[in-house]
DNA sequence: AGCGTTGGCCAACGAGCGTTGACATGCAGG
DNA sequence: CCTGCATGTCAACGCTCGTTGGCCAACGCT
């Protein structure tokens, strides 16, 4: 019974998921092979197929992107930028899931769509809650995402030394005013 | 003779290069297959090997990243941000070369190294020319590259609709102050 | 005209991929 | 005990990939 909450194979299933998350994050979709994931999880490749159907199913199971963005409405308006940047950093460092989805999104059309969905479902509402003029919401959210994904790209995907060398608090101090301005300042 | 300036095969060679640039930009390294490139160029896959040795050689021939950054020393200091952003947009829209190298850099270790080299050889000097304190140069250059690559990622690689919808002049108007601040403002 | 060189195509190779199905093993419930 | 199902192993499939080498046609030279 697939609905049974506790199965004998749970250890295998989570081993597969963990190995898959690491591989997708490190290698992207094409180079993260089922065989390599199975090797990492110390099981047979066919087990992946049995439990997740196919490679796409495995990726879908690995990635359930929830940014868990804070409720900006309950924050002082001038602290939204800092809260967002700080939260983003924490989410990215939590595990490899966001790195995986970004890396896959760059080379895989389905991954790119998933990224768009995250943007639309999770970041746009934040901009809506903060922005005065509803007509400017997409523009301002786009600016914010360009800065935040740029940080993630250079720090967690490309790992440019100059960016990884930055201290967490310095990043927050520098980027918070940028995000704040994109969200709330008058259009230039 | 490989040094001969004009060969009978020049048309084929450039056809291969153009098809390769488009494929690498659209698909990344792994999914841009030699067979697909050859099909686009209407030649046999073995011709690619003959002229460029192997797939890596082809990629190296396609990509010779030169940002041609303006000489910031000759500019008024407060216009550097605007000049950089505007120049970056023009370079990215010129052809698919920069998109190709970014897409490849995300999934391919060799591509990532190439990106690091571009950063080090071309962007760091700009920061050096503008920055008062030499010790802060890497930090400030890292911040600039996070914003600029973030724009390129969301606009030219992921093509998030909200970002592609932005007008060129609006991007410059919004991002120029950010870059300017990262380069010249006092540390927060 | 004859010949070497260059450009191009074709068929094939070995390897790695995702995926499948047959088969062994171990654990339950009667 | 035997039966049934979940779990795991193994070998193989069809495919696509990068890459190779042999073959033919077109050209430039003397």
Word description of this protein:
The structure is a homodimer of 188-residue chains. Chain A is mostly helical. Chain A folds into two domains: 10-62, Orthogonal Bundle (Arc Repressor Mutant, subunit A), CATH 1.10.10; 72-184, no CATH class. Chain A is 72% helix and 0% strand. Chain A is built from ten helices and no strands. Chain A has helices at residues 10-31, 34-41, 45-52, 55-62, 80-94, 97-107, 109-130, 137-157, 161-164, 168-184. In chain A, helix 3 (45-52) crosses helix 4 and helix 8 (137-157) runs antiparallel to helix 10 (168-184). The longest helix of chain A has 22 residues, at 10-31. The radius of gyration of chain A is 19 Å and the shape is elongated. Chain A binds a DNA duplex (30 and 30 nucleotides) through helix 3.
What's the gist of this structure?
By secondary structure, chain A is an all-alpha fold.
